[in-house]
Amino acid sequence: MGNEDDTEVLEDGSFTRPYFLTQGRTRSDAGELAVEAMVAVSAGSTMPADHDLAAIYSLCKTPNSIAEISAKCSMPLGVARVLVADLWGAGTLEVLETTRSDDIAIVRRLLDGIRNR
């Protein structure tokens, strides 16, 4: 028996293991994406037929990070990384340019924003 952390409840109330969603893969053939990578639906792409991929597609009509997708879809982070990378590899999602961490002005604005909360 699995525990709550390694199963997903399907619409019909049954459970599935995360590795079933990725067909046992821990990495996508398309490559590996960082959990903070921002992704969005590619222009001209269509919603996938698969339920889990369609949920990711719907979320990505506005940019989301892989970590956000994992949380919002209630799926393990590793599963979200593989499925998002699959969609990226198929051209359904695009990876948006992220800010370089060496841009000191952005880091300072971020810190100021945190201090002023």
Keywords:
117 residues, alpha+beta, 5 helices, disordered N terminus
Count of individual helical segments? 5
Shape: elongated
The helical percent reads: 25-40%
Label the structural class: alpha+beta
Name of the top-level CATH class: Mainly Alpha
CATH architecture: Orthogonal Bundle
The CATH superfamily label reads Winged helix-like DNA-binding domain superfamily/Winged helix DNA-binding domain
Work out the strand percent: 5-15%
Lay out the secondary structure.
Elements: E1 8-9, E2 15-16, H1 18-21, E3 38-41, H2 51-59, E4 64-65, H3 66-72, H4 77-89, E5 93-95, H5 104-115
Antiparallel strand pairs: 1-2, 3-4, 3-5
Plain-language structure description:
By secondary structure, this protein is α+β, with helices and mostly antiparallel strands. The chain has one domain: Arc Repressor Mutant, subunit A, CATH 1.10.10. Helix content is 38%, strand content 11%. The protein contains 5 helices and 5 strands, in the order E-E-H-E-H-E-H-H-E-H. The protein has helices at 18-21, 51-59, 66-72, 77-89, 104-115, and strands at 8-9, 15-16, 38-41, 64-65, 93-95. The protein has a 3-stranded antiparallel beta sheet. It has a two-stranded antiparallel ribbon with strand order 1-2. Helix 3 crosses helix 4 (77-89). The chain is elongated and about 45 Å long. The model is unreliable at 1-7 (pLDDT under 50).
